[in-house]
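Support request, please re-run this one:
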Amino acid sequence: MPCQAPHDQAETAFHTALISVLYPMGLVNSILHWGSATLTNKDGSRKAADGGWSPRGTLKRPSVVLEVAWSDTSAKLRRDCQYWVDPLKGEANMAIGIKIHKNAPHITFSQWEWNPELSRAIQTSCLNITKSDDGIQFNPQATPQLVIPFHLFFRRPAENSRERDLIFRAQDLIELATEVWDEQYHEQE
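Re-run finished. Output below.
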């Protein structure tokens, strides 16, 4: 079985970044971290995401899930993310996919939501981060960030000026990617 350390590091680093984003809002203690809990879904299937979070005291399901692909293909990652946002299956409001490319310091972040008009999951954003001799680059280059809309995470509108969308800025994503790459290339030594 392939080493899972970079895979696990991605979930840990994402959780740490999430806490950092929630801290200024005073909402760190308002969330439930599901970890990789196995859930029975509406269709009777059982599945565990690599990470999941929800507001405390709401539905007993994560509102946002994380799927990480290290040894899995991009196609499997896409199917897993689509599964989680399907209202008849995973019931999450958003799925975030992290694809760690095994042969290069390259990570792809994708976000998925259910589109009721199309009756299917759609990818709402995709961001690539690559490390080379020239430094770290993002593609697309314009405003590299990952945004989780507040209402999708907390299942309610913001109630005061401190509550806002959860924004992972370029530096947050660089730190997350660097933690994964440190683990990835440490394991390959």
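The two ends are 18 Å apart (CA to CA). The mean pLDDT is 90.
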